[in-house]
Specification:
With about 725 residues, the chain is mainly beta. The chain folds into six domains: about 35-120, Immunoglobulins (Immunoglobulin-like, Sandwich); about 120-205, Immunoglobulin-like (Sandwich), CATH 2.60.40; about 210-340, Immunoglobulins (Immunoglobulin-like, Sandwich), CATH 2.60.40.10; about 345-545, Collagenase (Catalytic Domain) (3-Layer(aba) Sandwich), CATH 3.40.390; about 555-655, no CATH class; about 665-730, Sandwich (Immunoglobulin-like), CATH 2.60.40. The chain is about 10% helix and about 40% strand. It contains seven helices and 54 strands. The strands form 14 sheets. Strands 29, 30, 31, 32, 33 and 34 form a six-stranded mixed sheet that branches. The chain has a five-stranded mixed sheet with strand order 4-1-9-7-6, with no helix packed on it. The termini are far apart.
Length: about 725
């Protein structure tokens, strides 16, 4: 067989095999498919509304999609789907997600979904009562600065952002007749995907001569002026007073609607019924029935607060002018609301060594010391705590005229105690006195320590007065004060404007006695009766606390320190024995007429600084005190040879006494559970006596003898005048 014949035979054999059901003719391994499908589902649009989705992908692919669809024959790879906003029937719809990716596999399907939802709403306004062809006058305002005017009988504002809108309608005149709207002002809350409807009805005003108008309003927390210029404290409750005035005598009893706003958002609405049987023709702040009043919770008084007041919102009173029943005429009246720090006060029961009296302040009654402080000062949170009792070193009793200076010296001990403690609070020492009339308290001007008596009828007012000094206030010119604030604006120390006792109104109602405080009441910083707080003092305290927080609030952490303390009198500088304490540094302010220096044996200055000294408010001779805590590391402690204070022609210096390492204190138990301590003051001019369990100082003992109310274990730390040189434990009885 020839080769040609063999090829023909082979081909015939292959054909026969194929026809008999063998392997098909063609390549043994054909190539796989290289395309896939993207299945897109679109939801949320009204029937008949097209979506707006763009699909882009490999090889420059781009296609617009208007609804659910399967895109086949796509090259394998990653595709981007971008959904745009569409509009239908006056609503806007946005797709979610706005952008997404889908990976199309070879010979497979990728799924993607775009869910549309309405993002805007509509406001339908209908107007009635006007003659044909006479346009209405309705201004619509809302979120994002939206403003539009409605003049037609029916009008629908579409594609509005969700939120609260205000419709303010004005009077319209035509053919000699004036038409008044009802309501003159109203609000509407627009919801995405919904249409909210509002209507305004106009009516001829006829011959009505009565007109009601909003004379003003204010929100008060203790004292306020008609122009609302006294700032408010965030988080503290207050009372809103709205003053309505009538043009003539009447028997009208309109309501008032108040809307509290944060930006364009209404956060609360109040409706206030009339308090009296008629609208007054003159404003009378002294009368609770002369204003429309409502309590405002502190949670609503926050920075950014605005208020809208609407008079006669139901249009129940016929007036000659309905266009002045909103205040302000447009927008909201912004109020000055400020956040303030909590006021922390640590009350110290003081045991006076001269007579053994202990100031009556306990955890059970400490709240009675801060009632006036809470009521009048610009504070929200007042935290009052009670420290362990402290026994004074002074051997002279407290006198009603402070002729022996005991009040001032004990105040100096309270200042040193605060400096040695780690607390950042204001310190208020509480004493018991043998007299009931005379000096009741004493405090520093602009520094956080003061002292007052414990008489139950006046303790709260005394504490507020002394804290006022701590807040930088001098005396108001009333009651024969030794010196007063030359800038006080009201003659005779009166408060000058109306005050308001919010605490009393909240507890007993606005009609309770002494809720409204007349301008003739006197300021807390004077010595007269009928006390409240003036706007002048209120604002000054607010600014002081904002600008001058305690240096302890930003001080370094607790560390070893040397407490240097004393006073400056007309007779010179008194430099008390220094002692060591683990506390927060309290340094000289770096300015003033006096210089503090810690020096070594060669006279080199180790630490110190210039200072002014803190004035004592009630001291007639210009007495000033100082108490500093200077960081004391091991090197400075070893090098310290003397402490000097000089200035204003005076100088005081203290070196180390010839101290022994051990204080060698003689302890004598007393029948009342306390102990008497005796030691050699020439070697140890100061004993710092601490509670062994808590480490708190219970007395700063000088002079070689001290009496301590013990009943517990004590630790005595002896100072040689410059530093602590030894310790001794006194066992509890």
């Amino acid at each position: 067989m020839t080769s040609s014949a063999r090829r023909v035979a082979a081909a015939a054999a292959m054909l026969a095999t194929a026809c008999a059901g063998g392997e098909p003719i063609g390549p043994a391994n054909p190539p796989p498919p290289t395309t896939g499908t993207l299945a897109l589902t679109v939801t949320g649009l009204p029937s008949g509304t097209s979506a707006s989705i763009t699909v882009t992908g490999p090889n420059g692919f781009s296609r617009a999609v208007t609804g659910s669809q399967q895109l086949g024959g796509l090259a394998a790879g990653t595709y981007t789907l971008t959904a745009s906003t569409v509009s239908a029937n006056g609503f806007s719809y946005a797709g979610t997600p706005a952008t997404q990716s889908a990976t199309v596999p070879s010979s497979g399907t990728a799924n993607a979904t775009v869910a549309y939802a309405a993002t805007s709403g509509k406001l339908a306004v209908s107007v009635s009562g006007l003659p044909g062809g006479v346009p209405a006058a309705i201004v619509v305002t809302g979120p994002g600065g939206f403003a539009d005017t409605v003049t037609a009988a029916t009008d629908t504002l579409a594609s509005l952002a969700a939120g609260t809108y205000t419709l303010a309608a004005s009077n319209v005149s035509s053919g000699g007749t004036t038409y008044g709207p009802s309501p003159a002002s109203q609000s509407a809350t627009v919801t995405a995907g919904q249409t909210v409807a509002r209507s305004v009805s106009y009516a001829a005003l006829g011959t009505a001569t009565l007109n009601l108008s909003i004379d003003g309003f204010y929100l008060t927390q203790a004292v306020q002026k008609p122009d609302r210029s006294v700032p408010l404290v965030a988080g503290r409750s207050g009372w809103l007073r709205v003053f309505i005035r009538a043009s003539e005598a009447n028997a009208a009893q309109p309501g008032v609607r108040v809307r509290l706003m944060q930006g364009a958002t209404e956060v609360q609405q109040f409706t206030i019924p009339a308090a009296g049987t008629a609208v007054p023709t003159t404003v009378d702040e002294a009368s609770v029935t002369g204003s429309w009043n409502v309590a405002i919770p502190g949670t609503l008084i926050q920075p950014g607060l605005g208020i809208v007041v609407e008079l006669d919102p139901s249009n129940g009173v016929a007036e000659s002018n309905e266009g002045d029943n909103r205040f302000p005429a447009s927008g909201a009246q912004a109020l000055d609301v400020r956040a303030v720090n909590p006021l922390n006060i640590r009350f110290v029961p003081v045991i006076t060594r001269a007579d053994g009296r202990q100031g009556d302040v306990t955890a059970a009654n400490v709240a009675s010391y801060v009632t006036t402080t809470r009521a009048i000062f610009p504070v929200n949170t007042v935290n009052a705590s009670v420290r362990a009792p402290y026994t004074t070193n002074d051997t002279l009793p407290l006198q009603s005229d402070n002729a022996n200076g005991a009040w001032s010296r004990i105040l100096g001990e309270i200042a040193a105690l605060r400096t040695a403690d780690t607390s950042t609070a204001y310190y208020y020492g509480v004493v018991g006195t043998s007299y009931g009339s005379g000096i009741a308290g004493i405090g520093y001007i602009g520094a956080p320590a003061s002292l007052g008596w414990d008489k139950s009828g006046s303790r709260a007012g005394v504490a507020a007065h002394e804290l006022g000094h701590n807040f930088g206030r001098q005396h108001a010119p009333c009651g024969g004060v030794g010196s007063s604030d030359a800038s006080y604006p009201y003659t005779g120390g009166v408060i000058g404007v109306f005050g308001f006792d919010v605490e009393r109104a909240n507890a007993s109602g606005i009609g309770a006695t002494n809720v409204i405080r007349p301008p003739t009441h006197t300021d807390i910083m004077g010595y007269c009766g009928n006390q409240w707080i003036s706007d002048y003092t209120y604002l000054a305290v607010l600014n002081f606390r904002a600008a001058s927080p305690s240096r302890r609030e930003v001080a370094p952490a607790v560390q070893p320190a040397l407490v240097v303390w004393g006073r400056i009198t007309r007779d010179g500088i008194v430099l008390e024995p220094a002692f060591e304490s683990a506390t927060r540094p309290w340094l000289p302010e770096g300015r003033g007429d006096f210089q503090l220096e810690l020096v070594d044996a060669a006279g080199r200055v180790l630490a110190g600084g210039r200072f002014e000294g803190t004035p004592v408010a009630d001291a007639e001779d210009g007495e000033r005190h100082f108490a500093f805590a200077l960081p004391l590391d091991a090197a400075r402690r070893a090098a310290l040879a003397a402490i000097r204070v000089r200035g204003d022609g005076y100088q005081a210096e203290r070196g180390a006494a010839p101290a022994s390492a051990a204080p060698d204190v003689a302890v004598t138990p007393r029948g009342d559970g306390g102990v008497d301590l005796r030691w050699d003051a020439s070697r140890h001019p100061l004993l710092v006596v601490r509670d062994e369990a808590t480490g708190e100082i219970v007395t700063l003992a000088r002079g070689g003898a001290a009496r301590v109310a013990a009943g517990r274990g004590l630790v005595v730390e002896a100072s040689d005048g410059l530093r602590t040189t030894g310790r001794q434990r006194v066992a509890a009885r």
